C-alpha cells in the first residue's frame, strides 16, 4: 500500500521555495516522490528513476525520456559512428585533453546540424560542449553566481532544477507568474525592481545581477511555447536589468502536431532574439542549454551551450575547463560521427514521428475517458500533456491512487516553486512505448478521477 503521507512529504520538499533549507530534517524523503513504501522513510536510490519510483508494471506516464524502444536503436548507430571516427586521421587526439572550446570538427558538425534543424544560423564559435543540460546549467550557475544570489524561475518549472538551485547552490528562488501564454515578462520586471537591492553587483568578469531559468520552447510540464512578443519582451527586460537568461532548450527539436494538415514546427529559439544583426553582439544575455538526452539518449551525457562570447569566453577560461579541457571530448567525437554520417538526422526524424504518434494516442484516449470538468490542450512539442482536474481534486492524491494500480503520473504541485497547481497532473507520452498501455493508462486516470469525485460527493 502506498503511504500517502510519505508521498506528500517528498512532494512538499520539492515544491517549497523559501522554507526548505539544508538544515531541515527530511526523513529520507528528498527526491523519492512516489515510491511504494510501507514506512515513513525511503531508502537511498541509485538513479533518478528509482528516486521517482519510475519502474511500474502498468502504464508509465511519468518519465520524461525516450523509451527503451528508441534507446535500443542507439547501439548500432553509435557503433557505426565510432568506427567512422576511429578511422579518421589524428584519432589519438580524441584521447588527449581537448581544446577548451571543444573539438572544432565537432562544433562545426553540431552547428550545421542545428542550423538545419532550427532553420536559423548557428555558429561553431558560439558553442561549447557540456556533459548534458544539467552540467551546462551547473557550469553557468557555479561560475556566475554564489550562495544567496537570486534566481528567477517561472511558476511552473522543472522540479529537479528547483532542488538544484535551492539545495546544491543555495540560491534564493523568486517565482515569476505565468499564464496560458507562459512566463509574464512584466511580472519579471516588477520582481527585479522589488528585489533590486538584493541582486548582486555586476563586475567585468561576472556581469549579471541575477539569473532567469526558463523553458520557452515546448515547456515542461505544459508543452506550450512562449509567444513572439513575449520572447522579445523577455530579452528586453534581461538587457535592461543585466539578467542572464538560461534557456532549458532540451525539447526544441521535438515538435508535435495534432493534425497532419498542420505540420509540426520548430519555433525560433529565444537566443535568436538576443542575437540580431546590428545589435551589440558583445553583450548577450541569453544562453541556450541543449542536450542529446532527449534526441538520442541520456546516457551519452553530452550537450552544448550556445551563446555570445560575453557569456561563453569566461567559461572557456575558467580553471575547471582549463584543467580538464573540453568536456566529454571523446564522446563529442562519437557524436560528430552520428551527425556526419546522417545518423542523428534520421533518428531525430524517426523520434518526431514516434512521439507525435504517442501524443495523439494519449490525447484521443483522454477524450474518450476523461469525465466532465477535466481540461487539457494538445502540446506544441516536448514529452508531456498538462491536465487540469476539477478544483476539488488533488493531483497528489490522484497520483498516489494510480500508483497503487501500477500507473505512473506526476502531480502538478511538484513543478510549482510555491506549491500551486495542486489540481493538475502531468502525463508523459514519451517513455511508454505500448499503445495499449497508453490507452489503458488514460482509462485508469479517468476511472480514478471519477472514483475520487464520487468519494467527495
Which class of secondary structure composition applies to the elements? alpha/beta
Order of helices and strands: HHHHHEHEHEEEHEHEEEHHHHEEHEEH
Low-confidence stretches: 1-43
Strand content: 5-15%
> Oligomeric state of the chains?
single chain
Give the number of DSSP strands. 13
Reported for the largest beta sheet, the result is: 7 strands, mixed
Biggest sheet: strands side by side, in what order? 1-9-8-7-6-2-3
Shape: globular
Radius of gyration: 22 Å
| Proportion in helices | 25-40%
Please, how many helices?
A: 15
Mean pLDDT: 89
- End-to-end Cα distance, whole Å, is 24 Å
Give a short overview:
This protein is an alpha/beta fold. It is built from 15 helices and 13 strands. Strands 1-9-8-7-6-2-3 form a 7-stranded mixed β-sheet, with helices on both faces. A 4-stranded antiparallel β-sheet has the order 10-11-13-12, covered by helices on one side.
Features:
single chain; 457 residues; alpha/beta; 7-stranded mixed beta sheet; 15 helices; disordered N terminus
Description:
The chain has helices at residues 4-15, 48-51, 68-72, 74-86, 104-118, 133-144, 159-168, 185-194, 228-241, 309-316, 319-324, 329-340, 343-369, 395-404, 435-455, and strands at 127-130, 150-154, 172-176, 178-179, 182-183, 210-214, 243-248, 286-291, 303-306, 375-376, 384-388, 410-411, 424-428. With 457 residues, the chain is an alpha/beta fold. The protein has a seven-stranded mixed sheet, with helices on both faces. Strands 10-11-13-12 form a four-stranded antiparallel sheet, covered by helices on one side. A hairpin with a 2-residue loop joins strand 4 (178-179) and strand 5. Helix 13 runs parallel beside helix 15 (435-455). The longest helix has 27 residues, at 343-369.
Amino acid at each position: 500500500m502506498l503511504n500517502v503521507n510519505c508521498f506528500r512529504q517528498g512532494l512538499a520538499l520539492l515544491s517549497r521555495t523559501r522554507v526548505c533549507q539544508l538544515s531541515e530534517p527530511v526523513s529520507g524523503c528528498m527526491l523519492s516522490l512516489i515510491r511504494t513504501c510501507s514506512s515513513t522513510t525511503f531508502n537511498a536510490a541509485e538513479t533518478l528513476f528509482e528516486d521517482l519510483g519510475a519502474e511500474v508494471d502498468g502504464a508509465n506516464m511519468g518519465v520524461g525520456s525516450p523509451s527503451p524502444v528508441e534507446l535500443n536503436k542507439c547501439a548500432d548507430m553509435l557503433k557505426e559512428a565510432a568506427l567512422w571516427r576511429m578511422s579518421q586521421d589524428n584519432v589519438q587526439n580524441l584521447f588527449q585533453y581537448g581544446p577548451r572550446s571543444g573539438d572544432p570538427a565537432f562544433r562545426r558538425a553540431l552547428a550545421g546540424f542545428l542550423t538545419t534543424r532550427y532553420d536559423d544560423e548557428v555558429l561553431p564559435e558560439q558553442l561549447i560542449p557540456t556533459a548534458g543540460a544539467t552540467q551546462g546549467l551547473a557550469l553557468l550557475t557555479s561560475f556566475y553566481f554564489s550562495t544567496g544570489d537570486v534566481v528567477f524561475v517561472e511558476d511552473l518549472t522543472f522540479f529537479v532544477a528547483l532542488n538544484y538551485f535551492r539545495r546544491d547552490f543555495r540560491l534564493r528562488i523568486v517565482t515569476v507568474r505565468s499564464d496560458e501564454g507562459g512566463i509574464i515578462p512584466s511580472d519579471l520586471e516588477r520582481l527585479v525592481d522589488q528585489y533590486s537591492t538584493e541582486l548582486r553587483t555586476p563586475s567585468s568578469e561576472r556581469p549579471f545581477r541575477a539569473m532567469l531559468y526558463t523553458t520557452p520552447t515546448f515547456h515542461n510540464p505544459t508543452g506550450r511555447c512562449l509567444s513572439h512578443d513575449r520572447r522579445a519582451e523577455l530579452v528586453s527586460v534581461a538587457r535592461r536589468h543585466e539578467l542572464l537568461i538560461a534557456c532549458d532548450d532540451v525539447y526544441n527539436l521535438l515538435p508535435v502536431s495534432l493534425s497532419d494538415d498542420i505540420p509540426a514546427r520548430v519555433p525560433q529559439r529565444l537566443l535568436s532574439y538576443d542575437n540580431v544583426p546590428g545589435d551589440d553582439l558583445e553583450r548577450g544575455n541569453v544562453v541556450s542549454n541543449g542536450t542529446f538526452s532527449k534526441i538520442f539518449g541520456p546516457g551519452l551525457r553530452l550537450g552544448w551551450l550556445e551563446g555570445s562570447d560575453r557569456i561563453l569566453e569566461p567559461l572557456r577560461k575558467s580553471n575547471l575547463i582549463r584543467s580538464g579541457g573540453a568536456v566529454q571530448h571523446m564522446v563529442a567525437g562519437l557524436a560528430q560521427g552520428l551527425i556526419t554520417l546522417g545518423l542523428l538526422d534520421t533518428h531525430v526524424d524517426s523520434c518526431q514521428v514516434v512521439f507525435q504518434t504517442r501524443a495523439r494516442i494519449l490525447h484521443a484516449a483522454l477524450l474518450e475517458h476523461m469525465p466532465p470538468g477535466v481540461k487539457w490542450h494538445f502540446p506544441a512539442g516536448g514529452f508531456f500533456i498538462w491536465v487540469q482536474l476539477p478544483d476539488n481534486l488533488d493531483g497528489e492524491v490522484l497520483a498516489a491512487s494510480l500508483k497503487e494500480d501500477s500507473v505512473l503520473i506526476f502531480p502538478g504541485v511538484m513543478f510549482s516553486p510555491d506549491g500551486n497547481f495542486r489540481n493538475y497532473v502531468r502525463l508523459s507520452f514519451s517513455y511508454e512505448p505500448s499503445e495499449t498501455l497508453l490507452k489503458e493508462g488514460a482509462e485508469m486516470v479517468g476511472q480514478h478521477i471519477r472514483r475520487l469525485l464520487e468519494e467527495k460527493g
